Amino acid sequence: MIEVIFFDFDGVLVESVDVKTEAFARLFRAEGSEAVEAVVNYHLQNTGVSRFDKFRYIYREILKRPLTEAEFRRLCDSFAEIVVNEVVKAPYVDGTPEFLRDYSEKYRCFVTSATPQEEMKRIICERNMSQFFRGVYGAPTPKKDAVRMALEEERVKPSQALYVGDALSDYRAASENGVFFVARIDGNETLFKGIDCPRIRDLTELDTVLDTLWSQAP
Questions:
Q1: Can you tell me the mean pLDDT for 157-182?
Q2: Does one domain contain both 32 and 122?
Q3: Which residues pair with 142 in a beta bridge?
Q4: Which residues span the domain enclosing 171?
Q5: Are 107 and 212 in a shared domain?
Q6: Domain's final residue, options 54, 89, 124
């Protein structure tokens, strides 16, 4: 039944959400503790949103001042400099290496991330993960468009695909394309309150979910 699996990266394959949280805190430290708290809270409630959109929101809604193009570029460059090496070094979510090793030939696997695409490819390359993925999608391509494009290119029906994510943007990308969704839960339970979907603590449990879907296939 399932032929394609989409993975968000941070917080699903690699324990790197905290790396980016700290990066946002560092970038806006000069704005004061209240602004930093607001920035971090916004980031944590919108983990699947691209940093580009976050910077624009932060200036418009939190700092309430214009964001110049020069400042926007500085923020993007500084953020990338802070996070790339740390994400490369971050530990895997439990079960990630084993699942990719054992199942990446059975399922066509893709990464769909809010991280800039070339940066995401660099991280995956430096972590020696490239061989496991048929494709890597990142910003500026929205996740919902990445899923749609991959399904079209692979000629796979939505009912034959599954998306593993830890943010509402992941859930929306799956649901808007009619793809099965699995939530990775790790301190983000409230995000998925009222949403009917399988929940896993880490990737050691993903094969059980897939077995269940296979058993339910007509």
A1: 96
A2: no
A3: none
A4: 4-15+92-216
A5: yes
A6: 89
Q: What is the pLDDT of residue 15?
A: 95
Q: Tell me, what amino acid is at 138?
A: G
Question: How high is the pLDDT of residue 154?
Answer: 96
Element (H, E) at 74: helix 69-89
For residue 24, the SS3 value is helix
Residue 167 tokens read as: 């943010």
d(CA 13, CA 11): 6
Q: Does residue 128 come out as left (phi exceeding 0), alpha (psi in the -120 to 50 range) or beta?
A: left
143 vs 112: CA distance, rounded Å: 6
The string of pLDDT tens digits covering residues 181-194 is 999 999 889 989 99
How far apart CA 68 and CA 54 sit, in angstroms, is 14
Task: Write down the pTM of the prediction.
Answer: 0.88
Do 140 and 179 fall within a single domain?
yes
Distance (Å, whole) CA 56 – CA 36: 15
Question: Quick count: other Cβ atoms within 10 Å of Cβ 178?
Answer: 12
Domain end, chosen from 52, 71, 89, is at: 89
Q: pLDDT tens-digit profile of 57-94? A: 999 999 999 999 999 999 999 999 888 989 999 999 99
Residue 142 token pair: 């929205």
Which pLDDT tens digit goes with each residue over 8-21?
999 999 999 899 99
